[in-house]
Amino acid sequence: MAANANNSKPKVQSNIDSETYEEASAILKELGINHATAISMFYHQIVNQGKLPFDVGVSKERLADIRLGAAIKTIPSKRAKSKAELMEWLENADKEDE
User: Fold this and answer.
1) Contact (CB, 8 A) for 16 and 7
2) Under 8 Å CB-to-CB from 2, ≥6 apart: which residues?
3) Considering the entire predicted model, what is its pTM?
4) Within 10 Å of residue 33's Cβ, how many Cβ atoms?
5) What confidence score (pLDDT) does residue 6 get?
6) Domain boundaries, the chain
7) Contact 30, 21 (CB under 8 A)
8) CA 71/CA 74 separation, integer angstroms
9) Is residue 80 within 8 Å of residue 89, measured between CB atoms?
């Protein structure tokens, strides 16, 4: 946070990806507020609530994806060097299920 020499108010700057910026800009325009007002509102809500004014977390779907990815990493795997080796492995896998 940097203080502006001509103004006693601190200046807040942030970098954000272009796609998010454009989508947020369109929504803010529909609401009739600019970026500075939105950021000011955000900060006021942090002060009023004593926390972020929204829940921070991942969706149930994303959490399931993360857990599935972790589970998949625990499955033993072997790279087949040839089609014949792959076919042999598949045949043996079927026999193990019996």
Assistant:
1) no
2) 10, 11, 13
3) 0.55
4) 14
5) 64
6) 1-56, 57-98
7) no
8) 5
9) yes
